[in-house]
Fold each of these.
Amino acid sequence: MTKIEVNGRAHELRADPATPLLYVLRNELNLNGAKFGCGMGQCGACTVQLDGKPVFSCVTPLAACAGRKVRTVEGLGSAARPGKLQAAFIEHQAAQCGYCIAGMIVRAQALLDKVPHPTDEQIRRHMEPNLCRCGTHHRILAAIRAAAGEPA
Amino acid sequence: MRLRTLAAAGTAFVAVVLGGLYAWTRPEAIAPAAGPQRPPSPAVLAAGARVVALGDCMVCHTAPDGPAYAGGLGLKTPFGIIYSTNITPDPETGIGRWTSAAFRRALREGVARDGHLLYPAFPYIHYTRMSDEDIELAYAWLMSRPPVRVKQPDNDLAFPLNFRPLLAFWNALYLRPGDGAAPGTGQVERGRYLVDTLGHCASCHSGMNVLGGERSPAFQGGTVDGWHAPALTRLAQGSAPWTRAELADYLQGGLALAHGAAKGPMRPVTERLAGVPRADVEAMAAYLMTIQQPAAAAAVPAAAHTGTPGAALFAAACAGCHAPAAPMMRLGGRPGLDRSSAVLGDDPSNFIQTVLHGIPWERPAPGGAAAAYMPPFADVLSDAQVAELAAWVRSGAGRPAWPGVAAASAKQRKEMQP
């Protein structure tokens, strides 16, 4: 049994400790926000927060999450009541196909939690590991700036 | 009373002696260059660019994301932080007022144009044996670069190390000035010159003694920025011996398919070598093969066991790329971890560094280092888990577990995380 906390709720999981966290979130806990993209920690579609730090959940062993706090895009708000950053992504229509967006939002939130008013350079550097294949990066940056209270 | 007088007299005496030594040892300033130099021919510039690439000047004299050759990289030494200098031809903050004689003296003797002694983080104990011709070529090329006006931070060294005249004693111990003669001919002699003199490989691969001098005999391995620079005399032994061709590939491409990718401080070295003629890296490889020592006793293979915590971590975190059946292995032709130098070595530093920090994504240099990327695991794995993973990967390579991995991981995490 592996004990983890996801979005503030405690879970005891029977899954093999060798299972990547992404599969546990999607298949056991029905949290389908984080996506399987490359499976090699190269695209960021699977990004979640582990103790507040953005990690690639596709290469994060469940064994490494024991006793730790996981936060996914579902923990930031809901479709009915989106969080501030999620609302900014909607307002700026940052999603094209949307596959990368959950990872983008979770990574951006980790920055805003640490640096409430980041510079453009800080945002670009921080977001570098996450790829958007549709090319909506300008809108993603605008949404993050807006959520940080900066001119978009 | 008498004691105090004696003490005062003693202090005054020491001060006078030190002051006298300082005046005696301080070299003369060399008059500034009169004006802009005549632009050299394209042939001279091309040859100069090759010398500067082989000398790896850019690796230290460029700050992260800073303009090329404008300095500002903080070199962490056991004695404090030394910031590399601006070697663009800006007259105020660079070497724009340096004549070729001043440049030659800096490389030969470690003395700046105005006469102050340079710190040996600048590898003049190796450059001193450069040929006069190569020094002229490097000078001509550097002076043709765009000048950048930037004042770099002051060095952060504790007293008395910030008192430069003391370097005269260090130089008496370690500097054997060269005579400017051209290097010997033939491939191995060319390689010796490129490895020992221009490439100054010993600066990292020999390790430092307590005085900051290079350990002797050379190339027995050292530590730089938390990475292990492996011994260069034991490359051809063990279960995955390097061949001459693999060494040349690695030096120029940053990747030897049978041994792994260049990481840490070695990566920018291979990026610079990407631009030199193939004959140069082949000469380096040929010389390196001549300094190989016979194998020591074979390592005792450890029995691999499944079901360990390390095996579970590997399955989730690493197998997607590093398992034998992974696409990167089958289609990309990447080496198995059981052949990786970072896994087979006696020092766990490079394994730990790679696991914690990954290999950052960088645009491959044109014609050079193949793209090598690995995600970082510092925020995923605990130090104990890094140790479990290390034990598992080592057992797969038939090697006993390294001792003290968890403690070393904790130390590296502290040093490298901003």
Amino acid sequence: MKCPIEARQDGELLGYCDGSLSAERKAAVAAHLQGCAPCQEFVARQSMVWEAMDGWEPPSVSAGFDRRLYQRIEQEVSWWDLLVRPFRPLLTRRSVPIAATSLLVLVAGLMFQNPVPVTPVKPPKSAQLDGLPPDQLEHVADEMELMREFNRLVRADATEPKM
Amino acid sequence: MSERVNKGVGDTAAVLDYDVELMLRVKEGDGASFDALLEKHRSSVVHFLYRMVQNQAVAEELAQEVFLRVYRSRSTYEATAKFTTWLFRIATHLALNALRDGKYSRFEERLDDDSSGMPVRQVSDRRPSVEQSMLHRAKMDEIRRAIGALPEKQRAAVLMHKYEEMEYSQIAKVLSCSESAVKSLLFRAYEALRARLAHMA
């Protein structure tokens, strides 16, 4: 086996130390360690680090931890309860969702059967006279004649010398 | 340490099934199963977060958020991974966010704080001398500093590897990276720790 340090096989020695190597590889590293001082030093120093870390005990969890957590859960449940409460009677009756679904289906069916009438687009107002009834046409012709007469009178009045 | 992985393999499967089963019961509305999960994982989550942020009040606050998220997610929970993978994924995510936000940095505990983990001995004839206490405290402060100086992801990987005895594959899932990336993170982290704590040997 090649020296893991020289071969830069990073995890090999660490794996040996933490026991994650397979039995075969573990045996190979163990055999190599017999005659390799740098690897022995690596293993010794790694063990020392873990021993030192073992001494770092965190403080125990405070006594009120669970109580505070359950209070927060209770608050969340309360808020949710408050939001849902007005709708709860509706949600708890089984007949309501069925009736609502039936109503939706009914409305959808009616819409398909009698589609909403499309209002025709009105043509823009213009001087087109084709669509007008005959009496109305006559009335319009009279009015136009009256207008022409009026214009003539106005123009004649304007040409006469003023006193 | 060398025996822990092989010994833990058989137990893990049973524990895995039991935790997942409990969580599935929580999903069905069983509050007692949530209590059981909390009782079982409370300390490990708080301790992991404490070692990450190095402040007990912040660690407990974050741990509350972790369990609150577990509770909130009960209805959408799917048993796709180990329960602890999911739990520590939430915890790591919150811890990394808190550290990156930096809003907790001003709360870092003083190194001479009594809550720094010195175990209180009850038997008077075994009480360490003042000198021994100071020595122990100095040593623990140095370990805290050394771990605290690691980059956040390396720190999380080391804490899960050393204290939670997680396998590389599980750490990889928690940190959303490959197993080889975890090995690399751990190697670099332990290399830094070996260099920094060499004089303690």
